Amino acid sequence: MDLTFKISKEILFITCLLKTPNYRVKSWVSLQNKLWKKYKKGYQLIQGNYYELLSGPDYKKVLKEATSDITQILSEGLATKEFSSIYKNACDYKVRLENQWNKNKEIINKELMDILKTELPEKNSVVNVLSNKVREGSSYHGSIFWGHEEDWKNYSLVYLVHEYLHNFFIKTDLEHAVVELIADNEMRIRLNRKGSYFKCDGMQVGHTHLQTCERKILKEWKTYLKNDEENIYQFVQRIKKKYPEYSKASSEKY
Known about the structure:
The chain is of the alpha/beta class. Helices cover 58% and strands 10% of the residues. It has 10 helices and 6 strands. The strands form 2 sheets. The chain has a 4-stranded mixed beta sheet, with helices on one face. Strands 5-6 form a two-stranded antiparallel ribbon. Strand 3 (136-140) and strand 4 form a beta hairpin. Helix 2 packs across helix 3 (40-47), helix 6 (81-116) packs across helix 8 (173-192) and helix 8 (173-192) crosses helix 9 (211-226).
């Protein structure tokens, strides 16, 4: 498992435009309001409100205007002092996050191999680093988007593993539950050298909607960890057959 860390100013800006960072950036909300008033159609399109925006008979004209607005939003927004503050935060955070990863990646790969009992296909994922104040973590098509405070020790490392695993396990709720058993729980306990499943420092670990599945397969999961009779792919296929009710397409973001 390997990760490459980068910052895209455009991705960072759009993320913060839609998810106001959870710390005081002078006049950030004022900037959002200003851009909304000047470029409402483009702002709506960025928000995903395209049905409302394009519902009229002149939707092609509106779409052209909205597209032009987005260009202007990015041009103006990236040049502001408010964004400069957020970008500096993201750059500082990237240094800390990358150092934390490089310091721990050897033990992470060792433990991951022990948990999975097989090599994963070679895959280098790009981590698009955001501000750690936006509390965002997701992965799409092999790219990870990450910016989060450390809610507990090694929080970011655990969830970078989680998002990386969605390169290989992504299709069903059961696969998502297994990713949480691997990363959110087992990897967290091994990295922190203490802890228990499903809770850390009094906080729930993982998605609420997956916990029923995780608890149902927990005994078989712990038996799997203790022996070398099957690898993670074989375990997932066996559990899918046993619990077909959890083999529906995953409905949550990753």
